[in-house]
Amino acid sequence: MIRPAHTALAALAFLAACGSVPESIVASTQSLLPSLFSSAAAVSGGLPEGWKIYRLFRFKPLTEYELVKDGGTQVVHAKAQSSASGLTQPVSVDLRDYPVAEWRWKVPKLIEGADNTLPSHADAPARVIFIFEGGRDRLPESEVMNYDLAKALTGNPLPYATLMYIWEPDRKEGDIITHYNTTRVKMVVAGNSARDLTRWHEARVNVLEDYRRAFGEEPPRVKSVGIMSDSDNTGSSIEAFFGDIRFRKE
Predict the structure, then answer these.
(1) Residue-range definition of the domain harbouring residue 75
(2) What is the pTM of this model?
(3) Fewest CB within 10 angstroms: 28, 110, 112, 240, which?
(4) What is the structure's pLDDT at 12?
């Protein structure tokens, strides 16, 4: 897929950063579930222990993440001001054992005009991101060039597959959006302007079935989980709140 150089480089740098996970974690056959924001100790800058910032591109401003109390429960507060970065944690989850993911999130304001099919409007106030194991040998031939370019540019391989749950202002919940730069990133619309933006919303998704629906194949193990609030493309200021992310057996 041929894209303008600046959008292709930024997208590939972001994807490679998201997929960078220690091999000791990737190789594990035991379940390693994400740690909980509600019980995490705060480390440098108020970040939850065990979660690390991933930077999309060297010169992009970072979104701010901080543990805060909301209604007596500890959650992550994200503030994006024309910025884009996320928090990530390595995991090792077989979706045949834990097919369902649950979390809470609150989005006080949507990004007007956001559209993740367009590079110039590809922002979201909140994303929950699942990165999957797999290497170059499993990729479709059409995606091998992207994989090689990302590794050459960043030193990190492109993730085999990425599934995101996002807020978009106008699209129908359940719609699947393919990333404008690669077919290996699929976004499921999980919130829109029809929702009450003044309150928390509970999300319960079947990641196993959504992966099958998005990619038309059986999923490998989940190797990392992330959250992100980004507003760099639209130049807007937004915030979001994220509660614990848990995997369930059913």
Answers:
(1) 5-248
(2) 0.89
(3) 112
(4) 59
